[in-house]
Specification:
Distance between the termini: 83 Å
Number of domains: 1
Oligomer: single chain
Largest sheet: 2 strands, antiparallel
Radius of gyration: 23 Å
Strand order of the largest sheet: 1-2
Helix content: over 70%
Strand content: under 5%
């Protein structure tokens, strides 16, 4: 299928060449999720890297089919899944930064509070 001079292959070719790395990243994310299960906190959040890995594996599969069969619907599906992956990644990054800031503030404020409390009790 063509749109002007563009074909599904010409549009998907850069990502098609990276499909192996996309699959590799997906598998590594799934493995990370499995190892995350080993901690108490990890039991609660392990599904996130597993889900993100499954999304990347699906992206790779859809890209392969789209490129090799010139299927626009497969290309669209792969791009939609890739968009989902980056949305989830962005949300997770924002949450992690928020937790880091909260942790930093707590690490600085709690010792100062304890020192102030000891000083007040000593007077």
């Amino acid at each position: 299928m063509t749109h002007g001079n563009l074909t599904v292959q010409s549009i998907s070719e850069p990502l098609y060449r990276a499909k192996g790395w996309i699959m590799f990243a997906g598998v590594m994310s799934i493995i990370q999720g499995v190892f995350t299960i080993l901690s108490i906190w990890g039991i609660i959040i392990c599904w996130i890297p597993i889900w993100m890995g499954a999304i990347l594996c699906s992206v790779s599969n859809h890209l392969k089919i789209a490129f090799e069969t010139e299927n626009e619907h497969e290309l669209h599906a792969s791009m939609g899944k890739l968009a989902t992956y980056f949305r989830v990644f962005g949300i997770l990054a924002a949450v992690m930064i928020a937790f880091a800031v909260i942790g930093l503030v707590a690490a600085l404020a709690i010792p100062a509070f304890v020192r102030a409390r000891h000083a007040a009790m000593g007077q």
